[in-house]
């Protein structure tokens, strides 16, 4: 083997080693939480202990998550149990939504259109009252950031912590945020809306178009 060939092979080996090292470094630095991440690995971070969440929960002052309704609830959501961000209680999602007309809003704390839309969701809930349940679903494992964002916005809607995006997967929601799912009282999906809303009027129009006037 010539000297030049030896040098060429040595250089290639060095390049391969560098690529492997960089790949390992990127994998170790990767965290499943963050903008644009398609699937988070956990419902919440290890740092989000009950003690750490106590003050953010106090500041957010969220409404309680829905109590179990009448019936088994949406078939696609059966078996999914998540944390209620407001108080840390566990929620059987299908049972909580059973018998209710629901506007299910999927968002994340880092999503700018989501934070612009959330106050409109809160205003729509205020207008429509108990005829419709507006439930938000936070789709990132950073639960502290979600609570602080809701406190900042003055939005007190009940919120589920769903870092693994199990609800979106079960309802086949496109991988965009925000997205809204309209659920009928019988548990069927009226519409999946992978878009943002600018006002409570827009939300009301979408609900009426897909589910009729809700009173």
How would you describe the overall organization of this protein?
Pfam families: Redoxin. InterPro entries: Redoxin, Thioredoxin-like_sf, Thioredoxin_CS, Thioredoxin_domain, Thioredoxin_ResA/DsbE_sf. Residues 31-67 are annotated as: Disordered. The protein is an alpha/beta fold and 215 residues long. The protein folds into two domains: 1-30; 50-211, Glutaredoxin. It has helices spanning 3-29, 50-60, 93-97, 112-128, 143-153, 166-170, 200-211, and strands at residues 81-84, 90-92, 102-107, 133-138, 159-161, 179-183, 189-193. The chain has a seven-stranded mixed beta sheet. Strand 6 (179-183) and strand 7 form a beta hairpin. Helix 2 packs parallel to helix 5. The protein is globular and about 65 Å long.
The order of strands across the largest sheet is: 2-1-5-4-3-6-7
The oligomeric state is single chain
**How many individual helices?**
7
Helix fraction by DSSP (H/I, runs of at least 4): 40-55%
CATH architecture of the largest domain: 3-Layer(aba) Sandwich
GO cellular component, one term: cell envelope
Subcellular location: Cell envelope
Keywords: Cytochrome c-type biogenesis, Disulfide bond, Redox-active center, Signal-anchor, Transmembrane
Protein name: AhpC/TSA family protein
């Amino acid at each position: 083997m010539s000297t030049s060939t030896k040098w060429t092979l040595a250089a290639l080996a060095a390049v391969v080693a560098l690529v492997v090292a960089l790949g390992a470094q990127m994998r170790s630095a990767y965290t499943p939480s963050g903008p644009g991440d398609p699937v988070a690995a956990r419902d919440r971070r290890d740092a989000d202990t009950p003690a750490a969440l106590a003050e953010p929960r106090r500041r957010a002052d969220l409404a309680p998550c829905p109590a179990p309704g009448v019936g088994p609830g949406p078939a696609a959501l059966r078996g999914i149990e998540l944390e209620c961000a407001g108080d840390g209680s566990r929620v059987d999602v299908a049972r909580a939504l059973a018998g209710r007309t629901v506007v299910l809003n999927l968002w994340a704390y880092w999503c700018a259109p989501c934070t612009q839309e959330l106050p409109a969701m809160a205003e729509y809930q205020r207008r429509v009252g108990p005829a419709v349940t507006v439930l938000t679903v936070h789709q990132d494992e950073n639960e502290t950031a979600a609570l602080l964002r809701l406190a900042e916005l003055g939005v007190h809607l009940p919120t589920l912590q769903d870092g693994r995006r199990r609800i979106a997967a079960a309802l086949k929601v496109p991988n965009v945020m925000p997205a809204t799912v309209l659920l009928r009282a019988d548990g069927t999906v009226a519409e999946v809306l992978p878009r943002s809303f600018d006002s409570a009027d827009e939300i009301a129009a979408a609900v009426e178009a897909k589910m009729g006037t809700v009173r």
